[in-house]
Every structure is written in structure tokens, then in C-alpha cells.
Amino acid sequence: MKRKILFFIGMVLVNASFAKEPQQLDTIYANNTMNMALFFPSDIRQGIVGSENFVFTYNREKGQTLGLLKATKGEQSNLLVITTDGKVYSYIIKYADSLAELNRFVSLFESIGDEKSGRSRVSSGQDSISSQITEEEGKSIDSISVGKGKYSKEFIEKSCASLLKRPERKNIVKRKNGMSLSIKNFVYYKDLVFMQFEIKNESGIDFDVDTLEVFKAIGNNKRKSSYQELAINPIHIYRMPEKVRHGGTARFVYVMKKFTLGDSEKVLIQANESNGSRQITLKRNF
């Protein structure tokens, strides 16, 4: 009975957070022979599963960021975790005979909202970024206004740093003459888009980075009269390298004003070499 009461309370919290917006939750797999270890950014205060074929254990007496998920065969369910800082995390959980990963370091980005404020993320049909804005964000003198939102540079920097620590959800890649340009994450948050790039150099020659440009390509470039490339300028660039040496890899993040793509539209990214003629062009829709 106590489990049912706790589960009901958990569902009320989730429904209150998402009454206005649909959400897209990540899936975590577990089984009964191995522990799926989840490390949260803060100590776990409460963890609830929706079905008896799943068990989530954590240290209830002493604060600990580690939680262990196990499962027996059965229908999928959900896991709700609330940490001591008030952040709420929600996942779909499924049984799997074998596990691709045994450890997951949960990022603040994965929080669906705040328990007290009720602030929740908005699903975009693609990857989403959860709210971790503090009260200082709106008060910061050094801030950026985008649409209806105002974001401190400190918040954007921390968000970019956190994104680089997240698992890579995409691997959209273009290779040319030993060079590769990849999109590793493409994340929406309110009025912003965070794009994580990777440049890898196996060409035998150092690559001096001049610019990386992002465009929205509209139409068919074989029909010049209907083809357009509209520049999408970043509002912030995080850790973009000046040079990628042979054998090296560089990962960095562009933050841009939110944009979406139509049926005939694609994102075009061009990495240009400084003091050289090499160029890598990646073109893709999502």
C-alpha cells in the first residue's frame, strides 16, 4: 500500500509538470543479472518505479548520488527520481536480456524540471534540454536576450560544458581527405539550439580552423533559381579550436537562436581552413 501511495504522489508530480506540454523521455534498460548504475548530479531523495518487475535501490539513510536499477521480464514502466536539490528526473524503463551500458552519469540537462517551481522542459520532437536556470540568470548584467528569453552567459557556458559531457545522441558525419566533421548532439532549449560539433584530423597535416559556418539550405541546389542558403549565426561559441593537429579531435558547441526545418530544408555546415584551401561541407536534415 505504501508503494502505491508513493507511486501516486510521483505521478501527480509528473502530471503537474507536464499538463501543458508533451514530453519525450529517454529509455533506460535493465535486467536481473546485472546492476544498471545511475549516478545523479545530487543526492537522491526519492526514487519510484511504476511496476513491481523493476526495483530501484539507493541509500535512504545517508545521502548518495548512486542508484541501482534491476528488472525482471515484463512490461515497460517508468522511473521517477527526485534529488535533494529539488530536480526531477523521469525515464521510461524496459527489460533487456543484455545491456549496452552498465553505468550512466546523469547530467543536469536530463532533469525534466524543478519540484518547487514546477518548471518543466518543452519537447520539440527531437532531443530536449532541461531547465537548470537559476534566479541569477535573469538578474545577470552580462546576459543575452533571445526571443522572449534572457540568458546569462554563465548559464550558457555551463550548459555547453554539460552538453559536452552528455552521451552523443547523433553521429552525422562527413569525411574528406582524412578530415571529418560531425554533429554529435542537436538540442533544443526554449528559444535556443545547442549544436555539438566534432572535427577529427587524420590527414597527416595540421588543420588551422578559420571559420565554421551554419546555413539553412532551402530547395534543390541543382535548380539554382529555387535554391537559397540562409546563414544561421551563433550567439555564442564554446571551445572552438584554433587548430586541430594531425591525430587530434576537437569538440565544441554552437548556441543559436531556435530554428526548425521544413520538408525541403537542410542544415549545411562548412568548416574552412585558415591559410589553406581545405573545406569540409556537411549537409543534412533531421
How would you describe what is shown here?
- This protein is mainly β and 286 residues long.
- It has 2 domains: 2-131, no CATH class; 172-284, Sandwich (Immunoglobulin-like), CATH 2.60.40.
- Helix content is 12%, strand content 45%.
- It has 3 helices and 22 strands.
- The chain has helices at residues 2-17, 135-139, 153-165; strands at 27-30, 36-39, 44-49, 54-58, 66-71, 77-83, 87-95, 103-105, 113-114, 127-128, 143-146, 149-152, 172-176, 179-189, 192-201, 207-218, 228-231, 234-238, 243-244, 249-257, 265-273, 279-284.
- The strands form 5 sheets. Strands 10, 13, 14, 15, 18 and 20 form a 6-stranded mixed β-sheet that branches.
- A hairpin with a 5-residue loop joins strand 21 and strand 22 (279-284).
- The longest helix is centred in the first third of the chain and has 16 residues, at 2-17.
- The radius of gyration is 22 Å and the shape is elongated.
- The termini are far apart.
- Mean pLDDT is 82; it is low at 1-22 and 119-141.
Span between termini? 45 Å
Major β-sheet profile: 6 strands, mixed
The number of helices is: 3
Strand runs, count:
22
**Helix-residue proportion:** 10-25%
SSE run:
HEEEEEEEEEEHEEHEEEEEEEEEE
Number of domains: 2
Shape: elongated
Ranges where pLDDT stays below 50 over 5 or more residues in a row are 1-22, 119-141
Query: What percent of residues are in strands?
Result: over 45%
* Global structural class: mainly beta
Rg on CA atoms, Å: 22 Å
Mean pLDDT: 82
Q: Which oligomeric state applies? A: single chain
